[in-house]
Amino acid sequence: MRKNFAALILILIVLTGCTRITEIDSKSFVTAIGLDKGENYNLRFTFVFTTPSKETGTSAKKKDETIIIEAPSLYSAIEQINNFKSQSIVLTHTQTLIFSEELAKEGLKDHIYMLVRSNHFRPNTYVCITDKSSMEFLEKINPVQTYHLEKYFQLLFNKMTSGKKGDLYLYDSYFRMLGAGGATVLPYCAINEVSLKDSDKDKSKTDEAPTEEESEGETLPSEFASNTDDFAINITAGHTISKSDNVSEIQGMAVIKDGKLVSVMGRSEAMGLQMITNSMPASYITLSNPYRPEKMITCYITTAKNTKVKVECDTFPKILIDVRLEGDFIEVGEEDIFIENPHLFEKYFESKAKEMITAFLQKTIELDCDICAFSETAKSCFATTDAWENYNWKEKYSTSEIDISVNLTMRTYGELSQKERRG
Questions:
Q1: Which of 30, 132, 379, 387 is deepest in the core (most CB within 10 A)?
Q2: Nearest partner of 198 among 242, 231, 234, 166, judged by Cα
Q3: What DSSP line would sit under 219-262, residue for residue?
Q4: When comparing pLDDT for 155 and 51, which is higher?
């Protein structure tokens, strides 16, 4: 009896088999999608496909494929690609969506709504804006020491934030657009066209004062032309003076208001946002020495505690911000005054940081974009939803009064400096 029962089970297993199984090589996974305005149709899509390889280790070869196609919609484009691509297209592993600046200025809300409603995209898909064409960006991107483009984006975006703020993601970006502030930010990317060899060609011009026309195209304000303070270097992606096999950069942020791109902010402004929203990763920051301008001081800065934000909703909103930071000296002069008097540096750094954050917030007020989500705190001032809606935060934000305090505590001064202090 037992033998007959075992034989029956074996027969059932053989008959049922694995009818729905598919080989991994028969699927083509979309890693990134670029969206631009089309010429013949509304949209032009750039798909980057990754076909997994059975090979591993050093013998594995990169298998990224790029297909560019114009179509009325995303799924129309996929249907057309199916006519000449043998593998099945899988969207559920899409890591990054890249919109061109031109398309973002016209409006992103409808495009992102379509993606959010689809069950093919993950909520944590990254979304970013590129300066010119997403097609050009994806064609020229060349990850170094990274097996696939998917891993490149994952590692790069993970370094941009401490993980406490989710604006980088598809779903979070969409719901922030619908929120009381109606504004959000997205990472800004570009192809770097400023290389070291280009700067060498213009080396003879560096000692000459720029003309008024040349000054208009400067990335940095004229007063910071020779300043090396990190707080003053407010560059965006594409303007780093560097030379690399990979010419793509992600730096700065695109400001989205009511679904449309209204401004692009640079590195220091992004740092101000991160300090306020507790999303700043541990960073090296370099400042000029106020007592010895020719010398630089480098410190390692982290957030000490969550930034405290309080909003008083009177006739005009008053926003009170308390930023808490901790730092270590990394590079400081041997006989520097700050070694013996770290509190002097703390006050100096605090004044610099406060100046930078104030300038950033003033710009958001001028744009009438509550990208720091102060509205979430302001809601607690009202007992009912009707009272909150009648206050009309979107209009009141532009009249806000800002009160900022920055507190830095320096923790260590380097092993050599510690011995000097004991001596």
A1: 30
A2: 242
A3: SS-GGGTT---GGG----TT---B--S--EEEEEEEEEETTEEE
A4: 155
